[in-house]
Amino acid sequence: MRIVAVANRKGGVGKTTTVVNLGHGLALKGKNTLLVDVDPQGHVATALGMNPEGGLFELLVGRARLHNVTRQARERLWVVPGNARTATAQTVLVAERAADETLTRAIRGEVNGRLDYVLVDTAPSVGRLQEMALWSADLVIIPTAVDYLSSTGIKALVGELRELKVGGWSGRLFGILPTFHDDQTRESRANYAELTQVFGDLVLPPVHRATVLRECAAMGATVFEAAPTSRAAEEYAALVWRVLDE
After folding, report:
1. Which of 100, 112, 113, 132 has the least C-beta neighbours within 10 A?
2. Is the dihedral of CA 15, 18, 24, 26 positive or negative?
3. pLDDT tens, 153-211?
4. Distance between CA atoms of 235 and 233, rounded to whole angstroms?
5. Smallest Cα–Cα separation from 107: which of 44, 47, 55, 173?
6. What digits encode the pLDDT tens for the residues 98-156?
7. Count of helix runs (H) and strand runs (E) in the chain
8. pTM for the predicted model, two decimal places
9. In 3-state terms, what secondary structure has residue 223?
10. Backbone phi, then psi, for 72, in 5-degree steps?
């Protein structure tokens, strides 16, 4: 089983969109995949047409077993949803001085058989749950909008990953995923060029700005369901293959 954390300290960069579409893409390739939402906004469930629930709270605070707090979203795709109670869970974990491995231990269970992938959607804020999410990860993907403010957030997160390495973290940065890319604007082209100059091969092929991705979220559908022949679907399929080839 591989755990992939999708993280960025800046909001609005496509983290949940990436988690949902990457997760469904892996499921479509026959991989048993679990999405874990550690963001109190609970957007993973919403993006899949489900109601946000306190699944993560029950898992970490109520000590529920993993299979008791998961909901099936699609064939081979399950979700541990989050909601406003996730913020309470974070407060409790801080008070209890919970170990870095708390989330890792909680999600290394079985859900209708062996899991192949676990994708963790993180909140943009810094907090104990976000630290646990990164610590649990074998791989980290950093989505970033192709603009200046987002790129500054990458450097902070990369620095945090280096600190985790010093502390014994065994995972690694899988790649930086440019999102909302627009070939037609000078700013987007310039910031994309800067990303590749600074981070080199760590920069993954971009996901272009696409109205269909916003429409998918409103529909509670993934891009593979709503627009399987779109460029956005092709771009997320390319990410799926990269993860599978890892």
Report:
1. 113
2. negative
3. 788 888 889 999 999 999 999 999 999 888 888 888 888 888 898 899 999 999 999 99
4. 5
5. 55
6. 888 889 999 887 777 789 999 999 988 778 888 999 999 999 999 998 876 666 678 88
7. 11, 7
8. 0.94
9. helix
10. -80, 130
DSSP state of 205: P
Give the three-class secondary structure for 107. helix
Give the residue among 128, 24, 41 at the shortest CA–CA distance from 82: 41
Q: Angle 128-136/148-166 helices, nearest 10 degrees?
A: 70
CB-based contact 132:100 (threshold 8 Å): yes
Asked if CATH classification 3.90.550.10 holds for the domain at 2-245, the reply, yes or no, is: no
**CA–CA dist 119, 44 (Å, integer):** 11
Q: Which residues contact 194 (CB under 8 A, 6 or more apart)?
A: 151
Exposure of 11 in the CB half-sphere (CA atoms within 13 A): 8
- Show me where the domains of the chain are located: 2-245
Looking at residue 80, its pLDDT comes to 95
Under 8 Å CB-to-CB from 201, ≥6 apart: which residues? none
Tokens representing 237 are 């399929």
